[in-house]
Amino acid sequence: MSASARRIWGLIYRHLALYRRSWPRLLDLAYGPVLQMTIWGFTARYVLNGSGGALAGTAATFLGGVLLWEVALHSQMGFSMSFLEEVWSRNLGHVFVSPLRPWEMLAAFLVLSALRVAVGVVPAIALAWLLYAYNLFLLGPALLALFVNLLVMGWWVALGVVAMVLRHGAGAGALSWTVLFGLTPFAAVFYPVAVLPATLRPVARALPAAHVFEGMRAVLGGATMPWAELAWASGLNLAWMAAAVALFVFEFRTARIRGALLVIGE
Amino acid sequence: MDAIDVRALRKRFGATVAVDGIDFRVPPGAIVGLLGANGAGKTTTLALLLGLITADSGSVRVLGHDMARDRFAALQQINFSSPYVALPYRLTVAENLRVYGHLYSVRGLEARIRELAETFALAPLLDRPAGQLSAGQKARVALAKALVNRPALLLLDEPTASLDPDTADRLRAWLLRYRAETGAAILLASHNMTEVERLCDEVLVMRAGRLVDRGSPAALIARYGLADLEAVFLDIARGRPEIAA
Known about the structure:
The complex is a heterodimer of chains A (266) and B (245). Chain A is 77% helix and 0% strand. With 266 residues, chain A is mainly alpha-helical. Chain A has one domain (3-263). The radius of gyration of chain A is 19 Å and the shape is globular. Chain A starts with a helix and ends with a helix. With 245 residues, chain B is α/β, with parallel strands linked by helices. Chain B has two domains: 1-77 and 151-245, Rossmann fold (3-Layer(aba) Sandwich); 86-150, no CATH class. Chain B has nine helices and ten strands. Chain B has helices at residues 42-50, 71-75, 93-103, 109-119, 135-147, 165-182, 193-199, 217-224, 229-237, and strands at residues 4-13, 16-26, 31-36, 57-62, 65-66, 78-81, 153-157, 185-189, 202-207, 210-215. The longest helix of chain B is centred in the C-terminal third of the chain and has 18 residues, at 165-182. The mean pLDDT of chain B is 92. Chains A and B meet through α1, α4 and α10 of A and α1, β6 and α3 of B.
């Protein structure tokens, strides 16, 4: 294993060891997605039964939307919470004076984020299949593209949160719970972008998630994957990720100038 | 090659000059104490040496590496301990040492952990969470973490703060043994004058961001004509004009 890979593994190991010893953290991983799936599953069933089956497509988009949006939420939480764990344990000083490069720290958080998505969302997918006979994999190969785009969206939002923590201290960590939830109305998870008022549609169109969910609805409606939507989602993710990386680099440099790395958990 | 070579180092936070154009060197194998009242600039100096803070001007070379351009090469060979920077408290002692062993790419890590456990009498504690240890046990774990990569330069911020005299004495003995065995240099910031007199070959005294005096503990005591280093410290901290910065 190269020195760089070992450093990345060191930070991943630190968090795996933490989760191994903390059942509340483990429970928290799957709690949200399973709860959301339960609520929306029964809602979808109610809509389906009430419409005599006419709104089967709508019910399916509810369930697909819930499951895929949890990918973005867990991706973001998995990344930003990993950083916040270091802040809360007053361990950042040791991490930043070790040979671990900032990009290696971020790489470790990406892996932890992907693991958190796997552990958190897979039980919800299984629950959707068991309780509601809903198979997310019916989306076919397009599912992978939609999944990856939401994963990446979670990462750049988390990187923005981490940058804010570097700027404003541990208190800004509260953004970790709120930022992506705040974007939900514009992400077009449960309804098309066209439903939004005209003034808000550009906001939705600037988010990769809106394109992902437009694509999901098209596929669930029986159409082929609208590749233009996927291209928009991927392009926007690249642009937002570049902006988030630039913000992180700027805030990290500024934190070193201000001496904030010493007092970030205070 | 000096372990530390600091020239004209300056750092300002807003209107406050935290470090004001200091110069000093720490030769290999030396133990140097950094003294000063609270707010004198010791912690900022340590943070500048570690690259946690970027300097406004001046230069820091650690083990031959320019910290402004090549700090990660230096960080591989140094380590740091401070009672104000914790280790993850839910992880066991062994897990903590393993994490830092990986971060420093230590070869033969499990053997190194066993070696440190033996040196610092940590074997019975290896499977206990760090958060459940006493202050003395935590200090031993922190020192074990600081030595996990066999550093050529060790930076210590108040290494014996809040420790009982017995534990503090043992810790000082370990530091002296480590220096004797490896030839490593140690820079320590401390308010414990007995500790500084016992450990340090040279003392740097800071006040208001400036180095206002330096010398061996014996030389400083003689120069000020006082009974001990604590009296010298009080004399400087309370405003005696600088003598030979």
